[in-house]
């Protein structure tokens, strides 16, 4: 085996992956800015934002399978020169994203009783519902933008997506400053003001992506928006069958983290605020791996469309090694600089800040523990989605996160009495099992020729 043959794969992976990483980091930066600004506003609003965004993200995760699922399909169709398949899959993914968003809106509109039933404090549940009644409408543009992101990434045109997402950051900060704190003559709306800022940015980004997808010369032959109101029932069924398991997989993983938020809320508001900060810092590094996972989906989809097992093997090895390197760098940063990172989120003059900082710094050790396994599981999922294998990964995710991760988290935190650290050890356990099983499935399938017509040599 010679390393020279991997050079084109590294170049292609980074050329595709880095803009996707930039898009995810920019999107994450918007959430971070919300958390920082609301954290400066108050502890109860911060706890409410953490719970509300967890609830929103759970709905988002379930619906994002349609947009993510078509990425590999479109990449394979482009390699085959099947323009109709590109158009039909992308268009029906947009349809399903819209239908799903409308169906789940009532859950966010009446979220307070749900959160109270899950053991959250009344003041936190009430503020969370205030946020979700506005921010919930953002599900439509977010899922639509995700589908367009997949459409453009499969054509290896992700740079404008990154720029559009990045442009939303200063707009979000400005609108938060106006409506959260009540500046420039606007009323002080608290968490509702933050929700208005988020929704405004999401709509703006979606509109810009639509404009770019319509303008892009290489995309014009696919005629994505031509007679977009006409349903294509067979394509819709195919996208649904592919995307729903992905959505359920995302819910299984996201639900593990949402569940940890809920259980941390049982322990205390300070602990929940600290947990949210540590988890968001870990999520920032996850965005890098998620972008690389998207690149893995496109590269695996291209290999499948070309029926090239050797290409798939080398592309998969490349993206996996790149992700491992990033994970090890994150471990070093989390271990060496936890306090400065945590302190960015809180007002130093607030009386509760020192206690929250100490808890969050303590949790950063555990955030470092799952960097490698979190990276490997999302890369494996990206590769499997590229070869359109989604049902068994869904089962693996459900078992790993809910039959292993969640019981371990609860048992260590409450039965064994370890507390917050026990919740994080449960996260580590679930992610580690998922990483092992998902990687095994992809490489075993590749070796046996399941993803192409011939098994891979070596």
Characteristic terms for this protein:
single chain; 458 residues; globular; mainly alpha
What does this structure look like?
The protein has 458 residues and is mainly alpha-helical. It has one domain (3-447). It has 16 helices and no strands. Helix 1 (7-41) runs antiparallel to helix 10 and helix 2 runs antiparallel to helix 9. The chain is globular and about 60 Å long.
What is the total number of structural domains?
1
Number of distinct beta strands: 0
What is the radius of gyration computed over CA atoms, rounded to a whole number of angstroms?
21 Å
Order of helices and strands: HHHHHHHHHHHHHHHH
Oligomer: single chain
How much strand? Answer: under 5%
N-C termini distance: 9 Å
Helical stretch tally: 16
Category from helices, strands and their pairing:
mainly alpha
The biggest sheet amounts to: none
Overall shape: it is globular
């Amino acid at each position: 085996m010679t390393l020279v043959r991997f050079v084109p794969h590294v170049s292609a992976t980074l050329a595709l992956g880095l803009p996707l990483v930039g898009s995810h980091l920019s999107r994450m930066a918007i959430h971070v800015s919300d958390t920082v600004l609301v954290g400066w506003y108050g502890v109860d609003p911060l706890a409410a934002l953490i719970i509300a965004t967890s609830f929103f993200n759970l709905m988002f995760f379930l619906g994002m399978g349609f947009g993510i699922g078509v990425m590999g399909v479109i990449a394979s169709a482009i390699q085959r020169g099947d323009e109709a398949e590109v158009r039909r899959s992308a268009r029906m993914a947009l349809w399903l994203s819209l239908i799903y968003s409308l169906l789940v809106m009532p859950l966010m509109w009446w979220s307070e009783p749900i959160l109270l039933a899950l053991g959250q404090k009344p003041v936190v549940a009430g503020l969370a519902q205030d946020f979700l009644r506005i921010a919930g409408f953002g599900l439509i543009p977010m899922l639509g933008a995700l589908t367009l992101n997949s459409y453009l990434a499969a054509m290896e045109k992700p740079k404008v997506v990154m720029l559009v997402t990045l442009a939303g950051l200063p707009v979000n900060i400005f609108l938060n400053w106006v409506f959260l704190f009540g500046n420039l003559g606007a009323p002080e709306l608290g968490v509702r003001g933050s929700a208005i800022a988020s929704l405004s940015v999401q709509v703006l980004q979606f509109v810009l992506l639509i404009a770019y997808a319509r303008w892009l010369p290489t995309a014009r032959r696919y005629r994505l928006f031509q007679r977009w109101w006409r349903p294509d029932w067979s394509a819709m069924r195919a996208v649904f069958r592919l995307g729903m398991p992905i959505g359920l997989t995302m819910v299984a993983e996201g639900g593990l983290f949402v569940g940890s938020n809920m259980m941390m809320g049982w322990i205390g508001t300070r602990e929940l605020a600290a947990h949210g900060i540590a988890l968001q810092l870990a999520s920032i590094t996850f965005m890098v791996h998620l972008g690389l996972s998207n690149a893995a989906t496109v590269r695996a989809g291209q290999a499948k469309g070309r029926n090239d097992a050797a290409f798939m093997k080398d592309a998969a090895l490349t993206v996996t090694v790149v992700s491992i390197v990033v994970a090890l760098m994150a471990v070093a940063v989390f271990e060496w600089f936890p306090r400065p990172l945590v302190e960015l989120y809180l007002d130093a003059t607030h009386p509760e800040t020192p206690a929250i900082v100490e808890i969050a710094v303590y949790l950063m050790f555990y955030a470092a523990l799952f960097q490698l396994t979190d990276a490997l599981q999302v890369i494996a999922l990206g590769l499997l989605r590229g070869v359109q294998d989604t049902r068994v990964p869904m089962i693996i995710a459900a078992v790993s996160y809910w039959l292993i991760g969640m019981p371990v988290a609860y048992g260590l935190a409450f039965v064994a009495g370890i507390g917050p650290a026990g919740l994080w050890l449960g996260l580590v356990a679930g992610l580690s099992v998922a990483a092992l099983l998902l990687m095994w499935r992809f490489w075993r399938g590749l070796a046996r020729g399941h993803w192409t017509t011939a098994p891979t040599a070596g």
